[in-house]
Fold this sequence. Notes:
The complex is a heterodimer of chains A (314) and B (450).
Chain A: H1 2-23, H2 32-39, E1 57-58, H3 72-79, E2 82-86, E3 89-90, E4 94-96, E5 103-104, H4 106-119, E6 125-129, H5 135-141, E7 146-148, H6 155-158, E8 162-163, E9 168-170, E10 172-177, E11 192-196, H7 200-207, E12 213-217, H8 220-228, E13 234-238, H9 239-246, E14 252-255, E15 262-264, E16 267-268, H10 273-289, H11 291-299, E17 311-312
Parallel strand pairs in A: 1-17, 2-6, 2-7, 11-12, 11-13
Antiparallel strand pairs in A: 3-4, 4-5, 7-16, 8-16, 9-15, 10-13, 10-14
Chain B: H1 14-31, H2 35-101, H3 108-132, H4 137-163, H5 168-207, H6 210-237, H7 243-303, H8 310-322, H9 329-337, H10 343-368, H11 372-380, H12 387-418, H13 423-447
Amino acid sequence: MRPPGWLRVPALLIAAAAVTVWAVPGSAAVSPAQRETATQRPAAPAAPADTSCDPTASLRPAGPPRVTRGSFMAKIRARGYLIAGVDQSTFHFGYLNPLDGNIEGFDIDMVHAVAAAIFGNPNKVQFKAISDLQRIPEVRSGAVDIVAHTMTINCERLQQVDFSTVYFDAGQRVLVETNSPARGLSDLGGKRVCATKGSTSIANIGAAPSHPIPVAVPFWTDCLVKLQQGDVAAISTDDSILSGLAAQDPWTKIVGPRFTSEPYGLAISQQHPDFVRFVNAVLQRLRTGGQWAASYARWVGTPVPAPPPARYKA
Amino acid sequence: MTAVGDPPRPSPEAPPALARAERPALRQFVRATTTPAKLRLLLVGLVVLCLAWGAVAAWVVSQRSSGASDVVGTSEPLSLDGQRIYRALSDADATAASAFLSGGLEPIAARKRYQADIAQAASHLESATAAAGHSAAARELATLSAGLPVYTGEVETARADNRLGLPLGAAYLREASSLMRGTLLPAARDVSAQANARLTEASGQATGLPLALVLLVVTAILGYVLYRAQRWLMRRTNRRLNPGLVVATVAGVVALLWLAIAFAVARADLLEARDHGSDPVATLAQADIAALQARADESLTLIDAGGDDTFEADFKAVERRLGPGPGTLLTAAVAAARGSPGADSAAAAARAATAWYAAHRTVRSLDDNGKHTQAVKLVTTPGPDHSGTLFTRLDGALTAAIAADQVVFRTNAVTGRDAFTGLEIGVIVLSLVMAAGCARGLSTRLAEYR
């Protein structure tokens, strides 16, 4: 990993400079060549932690959230609704509630807060259900304004999209049936372990030293179907997602310690740093105003920890 | 080889001596130089020829009538069962999917429809298994029998989870649907396809010309020999008619007329059954199967708003296959149904399909623009330009066309098969009468020489 790391530092400096220049209103659009430099890196296997950047440092908000003239938020307001890419199958974070047909969850609360800040109405949102694999392409193509989808911030993804500050801290663990003796991935060598396509979890399973067999499916609930049918021995992903699965089947348990750190951020196109700053301001208000704690208590449970502190780029 | 002048010797020389005694008699018989010898030869020849003709005719008749019976009794019902299994299963899948779409409590009508579909599939599966015996379709039917309970089990799990408000329900429904679409529906389609292939083969056996030509040649030979025999006998014996041979001739003519009429009637009926019955039915059924598949795609795209567009891509592929348009199933079905009672319904189906596609595009554009609830409403509720209603119209038109042409098939195929009733026995009896007549007529003449 070292030689690419060396190459990456200057590349990132250029990228960071580009973003800063861009953020200044009226400055010329950054040349595509500069941005391409930033993405010109070998496609490294996702597994080992990439330390080439400071992933959780985001753009500092310019005061409280305000829809300024000519900003991306003004465009969204003119359109009449925010378009959010969300999950529809992750219980308690983003899921289609079969009882009322609404998409609900912790991630969804964040989106409603952003919509409320733009429109004064939290329901001016068009939800677009997407799979894990589609999160980055949907943001980059502009098909959605924002992605709230249990999405881990990491350096590799930061090459392609921007992230808000961290709004939730998760870590990868393992879910097994209650009668399983396994205590973690180390006990699951040669066994089939499920995660979704395009998730950081599936890469971590593949990279585990005990060599479990990764089984990739489109949605997290598909993993639980496979576990219930005896097709896989375990599911391994963020504890936040696992607790949503465990809540649907009392004959499962979450085992072992967290073995990764998965800070969640809202993904936004690199074209809209003004929107990143705006969203960060919204998140900060949620942290200090008590709404973050209320959402946590509603969807994750009590006791409610302190919200992850916002970190900004220097 | 043994010298003629040799003195008779005991045993070792005995067989050649016997052979020598026999050979001239045989030669004399074959050469038939004398009138009694010729009569004797004619008698044997005619009896053998009559019996041989009877055997050939009976065999040809049995081939044809068993082909016709297979068409009516086995391959057509099997093909129909395959189509109905497909219909019922596909409708069950689409109904289960759209019941999920309604959210909250599933509508009781949807639940009833799903249950009726499953019951119907099971019952057709049973009759198809009985009809198939050990034919090629047996393996697919076994796949269906094994898979159906697994499918219904997964749907029930999906339902139970859904009622608890768990998103896991949708995952079970996806799993069930992929079993249905990946395994069960293709198996049902294969049952139908294999039965249709068998139907074509059996129908060909019942109407084919080669065997009839063989019979015609044998009949011509027999007729010619009978005619020559009677002429020769008349000249030789100066008698006008030989009663035995007259009986044989009359029996032969009766047999020939019967065969000709039965073959002509059966062939006309079976060809009518094929051209205005089973052929349009097969094409219409293919179109219906494609329409049902696209309908399920439409519902599943709305449930599986997971972004991947597999189902919508499949819908578009099916739309291209279904038509109407050159080389598509609906256009082929309209062409195949031309002149049959199902023609009007087939044409109506082609028009309904176009209207349905337009409604489907409205559904897609609503869903793609975040108006999921409105999209679902267009699919699940009735209304003049709702996708659900327009699909029902397409499906109804296809079903009506299939039912109308099915009646044509059934009526004609049954009369075609019944044209062979008693013919096999009749031909055998008549050929025996002919043989007896020849034997009687000639042996009377022969007796006059003793």
